[in-house]
Amino acid sequence: MKILLRNLVNLFARNKTAALLNIAGLTVAFASFMLIMMQVWYELGYDRCYPNANRIYGLCFQVPQSGDLGTVLPRPLAEKLLRSSAGIETGGCLSYQHGDPNVPFFRPERGPESAIAAGFSLVSRSWLDVFGFETLSGDLNAFSEPNAAIIPHSLAVKLFGSENPVGQTIAKSEGYREAAQFTIVAVYRDFPKNASLKNDVYTDLKERLLQDFNNCSTPYFVRVKQNADIRRIEQDLLPLVWNYAKTYDEDSTRSQRLRLVGLNDLYFFNETISQEGGNRNTTYSLLTVALLILLIAVINFINFTIAQAPARMRSINTQKVFGCRSRQLRINLIAEAVCLTAVSFLLAVLTVHALEETNLSSLITGGISPGDYPGLISISAGIALLTGFIAGIYPAFYITSLQPALALKGTFSVSRPGKKLRVVLIAVQFSISMILIIVALAVHIQNRYIRQFDIGLPRENIVTFDLGPLAGRSADPLIHKLKSNPDIADVTLSRTFIVSKSGTFCNRLYKNDEIDFRLMGVAPNFCSFMGMHLVEGRDFTETDQQRDAPALIFNRTAKKLYDITVPDWLEYSGEIVGIVEDYHDKPLHYSIEPIALIVYDRSSPLYCMYVKINNPDPGPAIAFIREAYRTLSPQRQVPDVKFMEEQLGNLYQKERNLSEMIFLFSLVSVSLAITGVFGVIHFETSSRRKEIALRKVYGSQTGEILRMFNKTYIRIVLICFAVAAPAAYIVVKRWLESFTYKTPIPSWIFLMAPAIVLIIVVAVITLRCYKTATDNPIKSIRTE
Q1: How many separate domains does the chain show?
Q2: What per-residue confidence (pLDDT) applies to 177?
Q3: Is the model's pTM score more than 0.90?
Q4: What burial class does residue 102 get, using C-beta atoms within 10 Å of its C-beta: 0-12 exposed, 13-18 middle, 19+ buried?
Q5: Of 186, 365, 382, 762, which sees the most CB atoms within 10 A?
């Protein structure tokens, strides 16, 4: 240990610049690695927090035409399915219809003014068994008692502090369909951020929806038996699905399919209709970036270690003369490398901790607090030590295996093996940097293309928000109040936000053929509000809300695909009164699909409100909207009023975060690569001072010497570009495949990458070499 500490002190004393650059480079690399891996950890660990998570599956029906997967089923059908296969251990459901993501809960003795907002969900009792809720106090067996509820630990602390909440009562504001007061029977451990189950107040769904075959608002999940055959279970359940379809429609074919999708896979399934999830390609892209940055740091470490070799040769050979074995020398050199990486890792953890309050944390879905990722930090620490071992082992063996004559002369720096090794290592760094630059530019261009893409809907001067309990007839007073404001031009409603991956899926029989389409409930003025062009038929009218049979308007894609005529009748749905021009009702990852807009009676709840503002300054109108909502629903938190442009942008938040992360860390990779170049140039100019001085004596100009150094690295950059360009093209092309609508890959981004690297490399080399090239040659020769 004493020898190790002495060597480290001597290392810093001999070359502070190289040592500090080495530690700084490793610190930045480890910090970047951990930041990227926090997002990867979040994505790959999604929904893996439940006991037996690998045995939990979602019951999904597959749409025949599109292949999409629906995650909701009629409850009567699903309950029969649970009892129809021996491979199913248990199964449960949640009701989308009865839940609310933002409900004010309070202790009755303290009044509504002390309310804390929380989610509210109704689930079947078996739902708790499927997901293995972990109770901290109380008894889940009391869940089915009248007006019983379970709450998360975080809410229990907010409402009751250190008191025991079990047996106590909580209330929610009046005006909800369900009971206003609940008795707490258990407190469960909070689920992590990367879980589809929210930390809601849960109460029993009981017998609701058990007789309603037409209501598809309940996602069902099952826990299968150990080593169960999933395909066999699907075959067991499929006849029931066919019989259900036959009961609903006598002419139905056997085109319906039921699939069991693993909970761990469902998050990454792009085919799911009502399940927001991740992108596996994006996650693996980030993982690749993290590993590439680590690789660049390892290369830098090796380069710096080798660069310091000439200064250590005499010391190493002197130790050999006094009997120190090569094995012990190698162990000491590797231990030095491991110690340096350990110090760099600790500095990296402190750096990440210091970044918690910066804007960088918004790019990572789960946050960047190291304390939230104990497993990741432990693994990263192991990787850091392994990195030090790997980065130190080659230089240690190489330095101690050199011939004494070469070592004592200190000419390893100019030997052919030394040069070749440095060129290969720098070439790898340049290639990685250019790949990341090209990918970052391509992702940025695609995101800009998405933002500017015409989706067939207005974006300007429209704000939107969730109505919550004011949906249905309760929305009328709010609409009248808003329309009384001269700054507000119009108001309309829809069941969900107009552009969303989730929605209601329908399968009907039309002209003796099955047709599949998405169904969106809207207000009568919705089409005119959104500026939709009517292709055929008529628009909705106020009287459509008073009809016995609802009115429907399909889009042009549905008309082309199913040969829809106007007017016509759609069995079990209503009258087709019109056709509108296509618009994008899903993110641009997906193509335009058949969609039907439908106007129900006034009691049917429409949750999403849109307000068109005709004042150049929208601030007063937005304040008026908030105040109007607060007046009509004083006990509920005022909803977040967002511009439609912002809401549409949120659909691509992950892509935007990916763009910013890749751009940021491509800069990090270039910086690390340039740091490595700086170290190598520092090494070369120091070892070639005599050569440079002799060239000056024999008439070489400063510019010629600078060109001599630059020419080598310019050639390396151009060769690396020939490797990086096709590799980056493959990566970009594969990533763009996840979008149905994508921009062509412009050729200029491939030219930008080598241009950026060349400019930086030439600048660094010129600045570093200029001092050596302009030194007094006589002094340099005398010194050497």
Answers
A1: 3
A2: 47
A3: no
A4: middle
A5: 186
